[in-house]
Write a structure and sequence with these properties.
Six copies of one chain form a homohexamer.
Chain A: E1 47-51, H1 67-74, H2 89-92, E2 95-100, H3 108-124, E3 128-132, H4 139-146, E4 152-157, H5 177-183, E5 187-197, H6 208-213, E6 216-219, H7 220-226, H8 228-239, E7 243-249, H9 271-279, E8 285-292, H10 303-323
Parallel strand pairs in A: 1-2, 1-3, 3-8, 4-5, 4-7, 5-6, 7-8
Chain lengths: 327, 327, 327, 327, 327, 327
């Protein structure tokens, strides 16, 4: 199937323009992430995009199971070339949308296993995963599937550290992902940075694990006091040259950008600075990335998904350019 | 690509249930019409579904260019088997979603040509077209592509006859489709029925062509006075046994069902009766059908597209069952 | 100012079509009720349309102060000729939109006085008033301004009788209008009909005045049991040949049609039957009419105002046709 | 705490009107179901209202966990006395809102146990439960808690029979409630009626259990053909004089009334007829009732919850009047 | 009634976790401000929260009568401990939600009297008031009830000075509050600061009183030029050590944060800086505070109320910590 | 017609306050831009406001044809005097709203001709045009009508340079306006500044014309790095003292302010800085200005139009003050 994303042999193309993206109106076609082709497996791909329609890990508002679809729809607004970096992902890498992981809507544990199996296959083909969630628990099985030789680094944009303990006896939930990942040896806390942390707490030690384990936590107040350049420079220093995973929880942004999310926290990151920070990661060995916590039912305007689609493209650009830099 | 619509080899399916629709959550996957497989051409298909993202034919509110995408999304709520008729389209016919016609967003004339070319190809493969619009002008090039040996019959659900003359000098617009189709010999007015007509008029003779040419017009007042059974019985009598096209303009329904449309007219058809009327067409030689005038920007709830997806399934059932009746 | 509603000398009209309503796109221009011309006074008019942006009379949800503006906007969807009656108001009568009554947002009493003064002027010019509210209290000063020689008849479409006593010591509120009008000798209760009454009650005798005074009350249950034809036939019999006022509270309809209102009551009148009932009043001596209780903030879709605009046109048609019947 | 629902000793009441519901604006106060007093236990109550904020049983769209809160808010629009029956629940019975069952957001099984324990306590106090869901699975533990001496009767308003088998291996889900209840001996299928059934099916035998077990199924087509009076008369005949549970799934209504639900099916019950049918149950021994499947995130207008609040009041009236008939 | 807010004795709590806030899902229960317990009077409280559902003081868009309810609902998203200050209000002070003042929906004057009487009672119990409005006029009777020995200081976040004269003859409206409060000797203008002032003016001297009386006015332009730290430092210097009232009008923020308000003015305060400024008031003798002008009908998303709930928690933290500082 | 905008002789004005804008509630009246009087022609005007309800030039989402109406409605929130500059447009200049250009909804070319003819007439009367679009193509015929003696300067706030070539063979579209204007000699590229440019690109050279022709392009990254003061200072230097046109595309702002637009690009200009930049243009010879790309169907809240109304007032202030400076 060609890059036109499944629209068929296009009998209506009477002007020979089928190969020119500029002549394909953005509102048409079955929507895929960033209008990439669909693929059945990751075979032959450099970067594999996929969705995880899952929300059983949430503690409050559900709805992220509907996230991947809407991000596919709104990511059509992205064009093919980065505005400031000399990067054009499709020209530099082999990319496709693999569709969604088939989760089990009645079981956290089974769903986590299914997610890991899906990404095991992706890794088996040698592709790097770029994911649209789903709640933040979905990052855990992706990290597991990456089976790093050594604990990886992490750059996390988020309002919450997500390093809490069990909730009502459940260890697997969207507020515990990164504690579990560290404990499982998937992440090296000394190479983890969490940016944008804020919001009232249920107890004084809610995010103690982040601090105690040696993660670098950048509360939103420090973020604004220091400025984005200083913060992301420190982040690069912390993660160093090794493999790093980038996880973008849309609630890291202020809810004016992404109201469609389960645990919004007013007073968050500005979008234009988030974009600048991602670009500043150019050159890092980003082995995987995700955009999570888009809950469409809480934003009927679709703006949250539009913003998530923009972040998705920014992440894709740094991943693609590292794999095969533009000349 | 199998019926799962592009979701890949599904490495996460650990229970061997991939073939069972019941185990594929409806909120997942790249959305296609009724969760049918995508296909590049109509080769080998009995019925080919496609979208026409077009709104240049409207005289008032635009937005139907965004219709096919949202109907794809919301038609996921349809399951595979009809509730009252012994019909299961996918079991009886070969079906697929061909994607969208690539229209020209700057030209009515070129778009109409592209639509016809697309459907010429569909007909070339021997498939019957089932379309999601797009404004009602899109029906004209589909009828042209059907190239009937003799003028066809028509059953049209609509608030407006759409048999007007040029508007501001433009003969091709969504209020003129069926006048043009009759004049071009595509439709036999004696075998045309228009159901649900209502709404204030710009002039006394606005829909005169329908009456003068011999179409059977059922104004909404007569509809309610007579009841749906009597009306659809007459419709069947009028169209007879020959080939017939069924065109469902969502503004035929009351806007409480389908507010997302360009020219809503309060006081329209009830949804449950529209469903009954379509079912009453079982057995007719429906050579093509469409659902048109879904304009998502005017209904952020998506309910209009959900209703359109339901109508789409009803239409598919009668088309499929005629081609290959269930045992 | 000509019928084009203030659009200026229209230098862009290069085809000489300025007089043809069909060539004036409905989405353009400063919106007036039904795209009628604006006028500064009612001098020379047969029927004067105006708005009363008032909501101080409500007991629950406010917002009807924003009603007239949105009804102006959405009434643009009405064309000039009735679909089933041989009526074209602008061809039969002199009509204009007088703008809004300037109410006092801090005083019920002063606003009621201002409304009456406005309509005194309208009546002074011999024009009949057709009003868009505003809450239902606004009908009272209009009735006062009509200064009938004898108590008038009333046909009221409503979920509530609005014949209650003072509320928190305030006699002037939207639930007391018609009790006050009867007590003031403006209405003859024997010639009053209230159609669509329903909803839970604060006390057993909440609407006792209607019954005790001799009004004909048609609860929604009786309405559905008898059918619209029987009900409106009785209504015509009750009001007889004398002057009658028609008051249409949009909460008489089911809230599926008009969710943007202050006291919605599920289980109400169907829109298409409301239209039929108004048409059945053709020939009555309707000396004034109104559509009230449109509260836009409670319906961001604008559908409530669209429905109200349709009702407004139906009312105008029967008023205009009585004054100067079509040949 | 008095009937004013927690507003305190009301130092602002300077006119001695605290006891008069008419003087308590409906938009104020902490919202409780129907503005009833809060209570900590069901001790001393005839009928206990409560909410079950649960949505883990859904197969598609989540969000019913947010249902009870919004129904509390919008049920403020209900007044105290029934419009057509001589019933005033608070005058006839002791009523209170017990708040919500504390569910476990990570476990279907634990939540079902918690729900049953809550209702065991309610029954222990001799009160009859009236519940706002929550998805339809929540009805199962309520039925269990009722511990009927003999299988009970059921009147169910719904688009789906909810008598399916396990889904992805999970026997406890919102489409299986009534099969399980019959199998557990809680319901007598010969005394069960399901009204409004419709919608496409996943397989021919999806609701076979209903038919095979002897339930009376009234598909929507039969419903419209026969009329509400005939249907509810049959329902009364089927359930007879014994104890009966009434379960109202808001998706039984057409989605124009209740778009905020997880599995909407166009072409459903009209609201005014649903009200008439509930009233026709007056005198039945209704030992418990519920309104379920309100999912606020899918209806930002709140209309779904408003309709549910109206149904809640109708149900309360028949329950209260049976327990202590008005003189 | 315990901290669980009215949910009863919780028979469903089968794990003994009733005292642990972490185990009480935030979407459940009758909503109170910040999930605090309800109380009938302020007896024994340090800080009393209450709502004033009032909007008769507005000059343009109404709807703030619906504010307290929605802020109760959305303030559930707040947890119990401040993210950056060592403050946990419930651990440091006795707090409760007193419900709403029972206003008179037909009279500004009577409502103002009722509000004052309510707060007189609060003060009689020695509690400090923390209020959710209502329009900004509601601050006046609260200030009156505080009956300060000497005129108090004021820190006001707002787009408008609200120091205007009568409007249409009405001295009591939401644009005149602080002029009246100064004239009544309740506030010392030399100790008043108004931050965020902007927006077009009706006349050059619209806010002259602020300047002439000696208030410190910080227009938004100066605010952005100087930065939040400098501005709030000056504010602290201006108000000094004496008693001060903090009034937060949500229109002080940019409408991207709080679109649900009556007189939005684009170009306003950023939320994260507003939070920092409130925190910088730690230690001040804040004798009362409020969050006003939340109008839910103009923001169906609820984001305005979510932001207001966050501000409410920030205000509570500084009030509680001053009364009983954390160790 | 006096300044009250068509409300008639105002018989209800019983207090002689008709001339005082403060006493005219902002929610009333037929809405005109900024509540200015309507006029049929530009005769005698200094500045003529008008709308262009046009969206045929868009490449993606339509809907700007509905822009002028909603901006009229929401611009009612603007008062008469600027908050920081000593400017009161109505006191300094003769102003009116001319209504809308009557476009041809089926033809780009004819519409462009009609727009130019309309503005030719405006210029014929010596008035300066201030326009509300419409998509950005509408600026081209306005520039043509200005018939400058020498190429003009341009200050453009926008996410896109709009200097592209033909799209699908159509040279006239909203992404090509300024290339065409330069090529036609209407603009001097050396005196053109484009501020806020961003967003992914379809090809590397998409906006090459801007750079090659000598326009000053300020990408959003440079904008944030340099600060608004530096940028607008450079802009003034670039345009110099000669005639300049100011074009404000609302997608230049971040979509949090203006989601109702066709090609939103996250990460844009802050509103308060846009206001400061416009004010910094005081004294420039602004011969015309516009606010374009407001698409109401994509923002049901109306906030986009409210922001556009605010920008409209800012633009009017600098235009009016240059023509007749305040004393």
């Amino acid at each position: 199937m060609d890059r036109n994303g499944g629209g068929g042999s296009d009998p209506a193309d009477v002007q020979g323009q089928a190969k020119d993206a500029a002549f394909r109106p953005r509102f048409m076609e079955v929507p895929t992430f960033l209008r990439l082709p669909l693929a059945e497996t990751a075979a032959g791909l450099d970067i594999a995009l996929s969705g995880i329609p899952f929300d059983l890990g949430v503690t409050n508002r559900p709805g992220t199971r509907h996230g991947p679809r809407q991000v596919r729809d709104l990511s059509s607004l992205q064009r093919t070339r980065h505005p400031t970096m000399n990067v054009e992902p499709e020209a530099q890498c082999r990319l496709a949308d693999l569709g969604d992981v088939k989760i089990n809507p009645f079981s956290i544990e089974d769903s986590v296993a299914r997610i890991q199996a899906f990404y095991d296959a992706v890794r088996g083909h040698g592709a790097r995963p770029l994911t649209v969630g789903g709640d933040h628990l979905t990052t855990l099985p992706v990290l597991r599937a990456l089976k790093p030789d050594a604990p990886m680094g992490l750059i996390q944009f988020d309002a919450h550290c997500d390093t809490g303990g069990p909730y009502m006896g459940q260890p697997l939930h969207h507020g515990a992902t990164f504690k579990l990942a560290v404990e499982e040896g998937l992440l090296d806390p000394k190479r983890c940075v969490q940016i944008g942390i804020r919001g009232s707490l249920s107890e004084a030690g809610q995010w103690r694990f982040s601090y105690d384990s040696g993660m670098t936590v950048v509360p939103i107040e420090a973020y604004f006091d220091r400025g984005w350049r200083d913060v992301i420079q420190e982040a690069r220093a912390v993660v160093g040259d090794g493999p790093v995973y980038v996880s973008f929880d849309v609630d890291g942004l202020d809810p004016i950008y992404t109201p469609g999310t389960g645990t919004p926290e007013p007073g968050g990151l500005p979008m234009h600075e988030a974009q600048r920070m991602i670009r500043a990661l150019q050159g890092l060995d980003v082995v995987g990335a995700d955009v999570v916590e888009v809950s469409p039912p809480f934003d009927p305007t679709g703006n949250t998904a539009m913003v998530a689609g923009t972040i998705l493209f920014e992440l894709l650009c740094i991943m693609a350019d590292r794999l095969n830099p533009a000349p």
